[in-house]
Write a structure and sequence with these properties.
The chain is mostly beta strands. Helix content is about 5%, strand content about 60%. The protein has one helix and eight strands; from the N terminus they run ββββββαββ.
């Protein structure tokens, strides 16, 4: 669930190059067309008129955290792949990805 291929295989230049000549932000990178899942917003409930929204966010360390109101709870990656919904369980509502790129 963490790798998704997309149609883009183009070269891009970062738009926020604020550092000096020759720095990594000035170099072009090549998009691989592979995306990594970094966050999921879920809805838990039986209808759109009622229920509860929860955010599941992947930290830079690779660990997942479930943010349920003001109660952050560490989660296993295996649990993130089970967010398929149904009845009173969480249904993935919005999935956020980041594109993998490598320097040219």
């Amino acid at each position: 669930m963490t790798d998704v291929e997309g149609p883009s295989n183009e070269s891009v230049k970062p738009s926020n190059s604020t550092s000096g000549e020759g720095s990594p932000s000035d170099k072009e990178s090549h998009l691989t067309g592979i995306y990594d899942l970094v966050a999921v917003l879920t809805h838990k409930g039986r209808s759109a008129d009622s229920g509860h929204y929860v955010a599941w966010v992947k930290q830079e360390s690779g660990k997942w955290i479930e943010y349920d109101d003001d109660n952050p709870i560490p989660q296993r990656e295996e649990d993130i792949t089970k967010l398929s919904g149904g009845g009173d369980w969480h249904m993935a509502y919005i999935c956020m990805y980041t594109a993998r790129a490598f320097p040219v």
